[in-house]
Amino acid sequence: MKFDTVTIKDIAKALNLSTSTVSRALRGSYEISPETKKLVLEYAEQINYRPNPIALSLKERRSRAIGVVVSEIANTYFSQAINGIESIAYNKGYHVIITQSHESQEREKVNVQHLVSRSVDGLLVSLSSETSDISFFKELHEKGLPIVFFDRIPDEIETHKVVANNYQGAFDATEHLIFQGFRNIAHITSSAFLSITKERLRGYKNALEKHGIPFNETLIKHCNHGGMIVEEVEEAVNVLQKGENKPDAIFCAGDRITMVCFGIIKELKLNKELGFTGFTNTNLAHLFSPTLTAVRQPAFEIGQVAIEHLIQIIESKRPITKFETKMLDTDLVVRESSINVNKEKIKAKL
User: Fold this and answer.
1) 327 and 283 part of one domain
2) Which UniProt keywords apply (predicted)?
3) Which pLDDT score, from 0 to 100, does residue 343 have?
């Protein structure tokens, strides 16, 4: 069965008015009398008339739609960021089309091509863990498509970018483990070329350096699919446990990696031996056993700032040439998983 929508022509025919009169009445034009406006608007409401978005986009040369490209909606960080995006977009009259790359550069490109073919007004992008070549985005940006990057950002494209303070979050998490007496702190992270990987690794290294702990390359493990492939994380944990320099704590850099790794060390019954902290925005961290110490990012606010910047570019009557990288603070929430039980026992004896 074909779905028939009500058109301006239907309203005009029913009220014995011209289509141009109905159109102007719906727009609230001063050329139409208050009586006619009232007649048209009441009838339109009665028959549940809604403007055709395709026709409007052709007329305004805007679709009022924004494409969002993330790795995975199930990732707590991205679901919260999307909520922030939609909270602003809806109030500004924009619809949001969400796509998932599942950490695949190829799928990311296909998704963007589809969004562009749908004539979205702009893109909000967080790069996949496989994306090392951003020439595709660069080409779209140079052609004038408004793009704002958030979370995982490229250096090569000059546009607005919104991130968390990844360096400080990683530094704080690592230093906290050091304060607990841990020294062989492993770092399980994502693909090496992602901006978040570089920033969090730098924070980890600098915390070690500050406290005179030598950096050990063998304690760094990269999971190139960001934790979406469980076997990658399992292998990282197993290699660390079998290595000569066995870790006494693990710091994970990423929401999905943190959750998967925490589950693995519990299955291996290592959670009582290892200090543990990571990046995650889950609202259930306090229900885990042990409760989970984590760096929490302002994901909702990042989404809001990103969409505000994008709408600013879209609606600007002049080309924008000055851009900023907005950085929001993280928050380390300390719980049981990072507390060194042996240290507490030593304190109790003193």
Assistant:
1) no
2) DNA-binding, Transcription, Transcription regulation
3) 65
- Convert 169-205 to b/e letters by CB count within 10 Å (16 or more is b): bbbbbbbbbbebebebbbbbbbbeebbbbebbbebbb
Please indicate, yes or no, whether residues 68 and 178 belong to a single structural domain of this protein: no
pLDDT at residue 28 greater than cutoff 80: no
What's the total number of domains in the chain?
3
Q: What are phi and psi of 140, to 5 degrees?
A: -65, -40
Q: What is the mean pLDDT of residues 340-344?
A: 71
Non-local CB neighbours of 314 within 8 Å, separated by 6+ positions: 62, 121, 122, 146
Task: Name the E strands within 231-274.
Answer: 249-252
In angstroms, the CA 332 to CA 81 distance is 19
Are 36 and 22 contacting, i.e. CB atoms less than 8 angstroms apart? no
pLDDT digits (tens, 9 = 90+) for 276-334: 999 999 999 999 999 999 999 999 999 999 999 999 999 998 888 899 999 999 999 99
- Tokens encoding 110: 């296909």
pTM of the model: 0.82
Q: 3-class DSSP state for residue 67?
A: strand
Give the E-state strand segments of the chain in sequence order. Answer: 65-70, 95-100, 122-125, 147-150, 161-164, 185-189, 220-222, 249-252, 275-279, 293-296, 325-328, 331-333
Residues 6-26 have pLDDT tens digits of 788 888 888 888 988 888 888
Torsion angles phi and psi, residue 147, rounded to 5: -135, 135
Q: Where are the beta strands (DSSP E) in 126-230?
A: 147-150, 161-164, 185-189, 220-222
**Residue position matching structure tokens 């028939």:** 4
Please indicate, yes or no, if residue 1 is contained in any of the structural domains: no
Q: Name the β-bridge partners of 189.
A: 222
Residues 151 and 172 both lie in one domain: no
Residue 129: which of 152, 112, 150 has the closest Cα?
152
Q: Are residues 69 and 121 in the same domain?
A: yes
User: What are the C-alpha distances in Å from 58 to residues 23, 55, 118, 122, 325?
Assistant: 16, 5, 12, 16, 33
**DSSP one-letter string for 265-281:** HHHTT-TTTSEEEEE--
Q: Are 303 and 315 part of one and the same domain? A: yes
